[in-house]
C-alpha cells in the first residue's frame, strides 16, 4: 500500500530552504529535541487525548473540523 502513512521517515536537507528562502535552523538537534520533550511533559492532556485513540485512523487535514 503506497498511502496513507506509507513513509517510514522524512529526511530533510535544509540547504534548499537556506539557498532559496534564506532560512536556517535556529536550534541544533539537542536543543530541539529537549524543547519537544519538554512540550510533551507540559501538555499531558494532549498526550492523553492522543493515546486515548481520538486520532486513531485520522490523517490531519482529511477530516472536517
Question: What distinguishing features does this structure have?
Answer:
3 helices; 65 residues; mainly alpha; 45% helix
Outline of the structure:
With 65 residues, the protein is mainly alpha-helical. The chain has helices spanning 15-21, 29-42, 44-51.
State the helicity in percent bands.
40-55%
Give the class from helix and strand content and strand pairing.
mainly alpha
Mean pLDDT score, rounded? 82
Provide the succession of SSEs.
Answer: HHH
- How many beta strands in the DSSP annotation? 0
Q: What's the shape?
A: flat
Protein name: NAD(P)-binding domain-containing protein
Organism: marine sediment metagenome
In words, what does this structure look like?
- This protein is mainly alpha-helical.
- It has a domain at 26-55.
- The chain has three helices and no strands.
- The chain has helices at residues 15-21, 29-42, 44-51.
- The longest helix has 14 residues, at 29-42.
Helix-strand blueprint:
Elements: H1 15-21, H2 29-42, H3 44-51
InterPro entries: NAD(P)-bd_dom_sf
Organism: marine sediment metagenome
Protein name: NAD(P)-binding domain-containing protein
Amino acid at each position: 500500500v503506497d498511502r496513507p502513512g506509507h513513509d517510514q521517515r522524512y529526511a530533510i536537507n535544509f540547504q534548499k530552504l537556506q539557498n532559496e528562502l534564506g532560512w536556517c535552523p535556529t536550534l541544533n538537534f539537542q536543543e530541539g529535541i529537549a524543547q519537544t520533550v519538554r512540550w510533551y511533559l507540559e501538555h499531558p492532556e494532549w498526550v492523553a487525548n492522543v493515546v486515548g485513540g481520538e486520532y486513531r485512523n485520522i490523517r490531519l487535514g482529511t477530516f472536517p473540523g
